[in-house]
Write a structure and sequence with these properties.
Blueprint (H helix, E strand, L loop, with lengths): L11 H5 L2 H8 L3 E5 L3 E2 L12 H13 L5 E5 L5 E5 L1 H9 L4 E6 L4 H12 L7 H17 L18 H4 L1 H6 L3 H9 L5 H8 L5 H7 L4 H14 L5 H12 L5 H8 L27 H26 L1
Parallel strand pairs: 2-4, 3-5
Antiparallel strand pairs: 1-5, 3-4
Helix pairs in contact: 3-4, 5-6, 6-9, 11-13, 12-14, 13-14
């Protein structure tokens, strides 16, 4: 019997290019890509704000250009998807530029998600909602890549299962494993309640408990918060979750819980956030705002005391 010949012929590229040229083709290059050809990352969880910081960034770009190239991947239609550099792209647009230097990298969808999340977590100010959505996106990407994702499970249990994969986001982000779990739970909050977490009206721990309520129950909670002009404490949120799990959380029960006097309840001084928002970057925690105001008032008191002493 004659055996068929298996001739391994070189590819056309191998025949007409040198090894150096083929190696060079594999290297990442920085290309100036027209802004009109760059699309934002789908469901990008990080806000790009037109604030004072962006205005300053645009002025810098106008003066010296983009110093750090953005990261993009090419799509099937030939356009580019922005992985990292959404603020830089807006700064270029505000500066009147037509193109932006970019690194074009061959990434799968899940690799792009992980790269996008890791790059944006280096931002100085990140809202709880941004962390929540980005952690969830990365978890889903890792799951599709075959990683264990039991970060959304209860705080106890699974102590010997998938330890390495369960800790991967915590290791990359700097947040503890439990804190990552809390952030991921926030993605089950309806947008208005999640906004209240961003503005500091609802703290993280009660917000996590409220995330176990259904969307309808959370809508009812919003009405109760408005009518009672107060937000639930951690203990109150835990009670609501327990009643919800028992199938007994209704409007009357929720109102009764919200009207309970908190053990450490003291008279609160309230000020509309919009009156002071221009003095603080978006996403500044409520506690930091309060501390800054107290420090400013203390400095003002000291200055007034010196002025009175000088007038004597």
């Amino acid at each position: 019997m004659k055996q068929g010949l298996n001739l391994k012929l070189p590819a056309a590229d191998d025949l007409f290019t040198t090894q150096e040229e083929r190696d060079d083709a594999q290297r990442e290059k920085v290309l100036d890509i027209p802004l009109s050809e760059i699309d934002p990352f789908p469901d990008h969880p990080f806000q790009v704000r037109r604030d004072e910081s962006m205005t300053a960034m645009a002025e810098s770009v106008k003066a010296v250009g983009i110093q750090t190239p953005a990261l993009v991947r090419q799509k099937d239609d030939g356009r580019y998807e922005l992985v990292s550099g959404h603020r830089r792209k807006l700064a270029c647009e505000l500066a009147g530029l037509d193109a932006m230097p970019c690194i074009v990298r061959d990434l799968t969808r899940d690799e792009a998600i992980i790269a996008m999340v890791d790059a944006n977590l280096q931002r100085e100010t990140i809202l709880p909602s941004e962390k929540a959505k980005s952690y969830k996106m990365k978890l889903d990407a890792l799951k599709r890549q075959g990683q264990r994702t039991d970060l959304t499970c209860a705080p106890v249990g699974h102590k010997s299962e998938g330890q390495k994969s369960r800790d991967i986001i915590a290791q990359d982000s700097g947040d503890s494993r439990e804190q990552v779990r809390r952030y991921v739970r926030l993605t089950d909050l309806i947008p208005p309640v999640l906004d209240m977490v961003d503005t500091g009206k609802i703290a993280m721990r009660p917000a996590v408990e409220l995330s176990y309520l259904s969307s309808e129950q959370q809508e009812l909670l919003l009405e109760t918060i408005e009518s009672e002009d107060c937000t639930p404490s951690h203990v109150q949120a835990m009670k609501m979750r327990k009643f919800a799990e028992d199938g007994r959380l209704n409007e009357d029960v929720m109102l009764s819980i919200m009207q309970e006097e908190k053990p450490n309840q003291v008279e609160q001084f309230k000020m509309p956030r919009e009156r002071i928002s221009r003095f603080f970057p978006a996403g500044t925690p409520a506690q930091k705002i309060e501390d800054t105001i107290i420090k400013a008032l203390e400095l003002y008191r000291q200055r007034e005391a010196r002025r009175r002493d000088d007038a004597r």
